[in-house]
Amino acid sequence: MSVVKINVLAVPAEQREVLEKRFASRAHTVESSDGFEWFELLRPVEGTDQYLVYTRWRDEESFQAWMEGPMKAAHQGGGEGGDKPRPAAAGSTLWSFEVVQQAEPKRA
Ligand code: HEM
Predict the structure, then answer these.
(1) What does the pLDDT look like over 47-93, one tens digit per residue?
(2) How many secondary structure helices (H) and strands (E) does the chain include?
(3) Burial of 57 by CB count in 10 Å (0-12 exposed, 13-18 middle, 19+ buried)?
(4) Residue 88 CA, closest ligand 1 atom number
(5) What is the pTM of this model?
(6) How far is the CA of 85 from the centre of ligand 1 (A)?
(7) For the segment 12-59, what is each residue's pLDDT rounded down to a tens digit?
């Protein structure tokens, strides 16, 4: 059964654009990681002011393998040499879930 890992980011209002731009130029390495199934960056609209980085994985092992390797490279940030830029997020929390049920639209 798949697992969902959500990184919850507290982003000060003036840093939102910076965060979204960083994701727009993200490493795109996660797509080629074994066991990776889905990614979404979710911008808060109502009920919370935290951004969610939604990821879904075939199993816990796949996520752990990504965390120990490619994840680190994908979080160097900014690109273009120089110092590592200051994180746009002021804080983060990792949520973990097991997928117990799922559905997709019926296709004709
Ligand atoms: C330590 C706290 C973390 C912060 C502040 C953070 C923030 C960011 C930022 C700003 C990016 C855009 C690229 C960059 O600038 O480096 C990014 C990429 C990403 N983050 Fe995080 N992140 C954290 C940890 C995590 C964790 C634990 C996960 C697991 C769900 C995660 C999932 C991702 C994914 C999937 C990408 C895209 C990587 C790619 O395209 O290959 N992040 N993160």
Answers:
(1) 999 999 999 999 999 999 999 999 988 887 654 555 666 788 999 99
(2) 3, 4
(3) buried
(4) 10
(5) 0.90
(6) 14
(7) 999 999 999 999 999 899 999 999 999 999 999 999 999 999 999 999
CA 15/CA 20 separation, integer angstroms: 9
Residue nearest to atom 1 of ligand 1 (CA): 92
Compute the distance from residue 53 Cα to the ligand 1 centre, in Å. Answer: 7
Which residues have C-beta atoms less than 6 Å from ligand 1? 5, 7, 9, 19, 22-23, 26-30, 39, 53, 55, 74-75, 77, 87-89, 92, 94
Instruction: Specify the fold of 3-78+87-98.
Output: Alpha-Beta Plaits (3.30.70)
Is 40 exposed, middle or buried (CB count within 10 Å of its CB: 0-12, 13-18, 19+)? exposed
- Confidence (pLDDT) at 16: 97
pLDDT, residue 83, reads: 62
Mutation choice for ligand 1 from 37, 42, 75, 94, CB with most ligand atoms inside 8 A: 75
Domain ranges (residues) in the chain: 3-78+87-98
